[in-house]
Amino acid sequence: MENKVSQKSKAEAFKALHHGEKMLVLPNIWDPLGAALLETLGYPAVATASASVALTHGYDDGERIPLQDVLKQLTQIVNGVSVPVTADFESGYADSEQQLERNIELLLQTGIVGINLEDYDKKSGVLFSAEMQCKRIKAVMGTADAMKVPLFINARTDLYMRGKQDQKQKLLDTENRGKAYIDAGADCFFPVAMKNKVELAYLVSSLKCAVNVIAIQGIPDFETLQEIGVARLSLGPGFLKVAIKAMKGLAQKLKNYEGLDEVTNNEVSSEFLKKLVNRT
Question: What whole-number distance in Å separates Cα of residue 236 and Cα of residue 225?
């Protein structure tokens, strides 16, 4: 019961973070060490990126990593921090509404308090209809309600990534999906790959709900995003890419017998890393 109450309070706290004075910034992580690092730096919550979790386990993104591996990793991440953890759960790893409900049960058992839920069907390679995605959102809500966890649902649409419409129609369809998903019970709308300042401002004003954007090339700067009223900025796999870039650069130097001082003079010591994982 204590764990359930704690999970409920974390979920409520996480939702509140989307309605504060400042935009919530989440550098998506993939392991307990990264989560601990962010908590130590003062982040009020941590989020995972499905691509980062999959790639660091040797799988491509797109629900190719076994669900059990994802759940195990999420459990370790949740247990390693005291702040709320939200998971990128892709399309739910499900072929049916019943399987989605079962998977949400398993997800909530890890202690997760929020999810990203996509409207892209990995099996068929097309977007779910808005009506079908609304049913899926309601199924997730029903399962969470039954388990007495006010799960935060970040409803993602892939229209800007995969839609074939012209730009004007794409914006209109995205707006309509956003309204439908929020009406169905989602807490936040995530039009992934949407980056135009004018379109973002229009969407935030029209939906009047928390809107999440992802850090990609061409996105407005922090100040502009805040002025627009964007509630949340995610990095997706961007944080992993930055880490791999640093590793790649040093590896290339070491191969040429350079860069040794970057290793020997690194301010991140073994003791620092040990403290991260031994805090609890």
Answer: 17
